[in-house]
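FW: tagging you since you asked about this chain on Friday. Here's the raw sequence from the shared folder, copied in full. Didn't touch anything.
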Amino acid sequence: MERLKMMPKLDIKLPFMKKKKKKKKLYEQYKDSLLTYLTSPSKIDRHPDYIKIDKFHRIIASVNYPRVVDPGWLTRLIEMNLDFDLSIHIKPYPIESSISMLESEIKKQKTDLYALEAEGKIIPQSLIQKHQDTIALLNQIQQGREKMFDMSLYIDAKSYDKKGLDKITSRIKASMASIMISPKVPSYQMYTALRSVLPIGCDELHLTRNITSSAAAACFPFAITSLEHHATGILIGFNQVNNIPIVIDPFELSNPNVLVLGTSGGGKSYCIKLMLMREFMEGVDINVIDPQAEYTDLTKRFEGKVIRIAPDSDTVINPLDLMGQSYDEKKLSLLSFFRVLMGELTETQRAILDDCIDSTYEDAGITRDP
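HL: got it, structure written out here
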């Protein structure tokens, strides 16, 4: 027993004697992926030509572009009143690589031209034009007037049902073809294509095309054709082409008059009442001449004042009130007023009315003298 006590301590570490490490808190363990978890969809259904995440999605990629583009050439796509997202990826191409690529392309084109000419065949005009464009582009890059970019364009068509998705896809393809863009649906690559459309700046599909800096600049900004809008004013409606709100302040126009036309029951009164309510919210003073009492309820709803003018009412209009006019101006307006009531007047009648007006104003202490 004494010998055992004097033996040195052995440093033996057995698996079952290891100290248990404290587990990290659940938040610390998953905090890096928390945002991804919260924003990720609960379910993704993949199909060869579409993908379903709440809505049906189908990506349409651009594989060919027109030879020459004008500023705002993508306007027709942007103005489509459809449910879709458009994504454009533009990546600069190194100048050295651009020059090397163009020089190789020119050599290849020359070889094709010489081969066709040696065989006595007709050289296609498209090949000649392509060769000339390549030489011109190389000169512009060497002079520093142009740069090369890789561009890819994807459109995400969306709908709540498959039939609607097919319809939207057909319309988008037709619009793309109308501006000389060849559309293509990347079958069996929908998930990768959808990630290329999302605003994460990642082009995973890589269906790119080399373009120049002037062509890239023609894509932005989108030239949207719309009606003139003001910084202040009221909402008049929405553009039927691109669904852009139309905000106009009539008092900013040179002639602030509005004419509303429409068929019976088409909503003319509703339109006017809506405009009046929006102008009232902007602090505009509103006076309505309402022979048929259509606006009485609206006036009471906004705590306005209803002035009833009728033979049996206590409210009357005094046509002799100067209303800020001069004496002579008021006399002319009164003569016009009496002519409306009684028809055309003779010179004698006009003279009698003129004297009566003077006498009435004199009795009230109003004369030409200020």
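FW: The chain has a mean pLDDT of 83.
HL: agreed, and The longest strand covers residues 148-159.
FW: great, closing this out.
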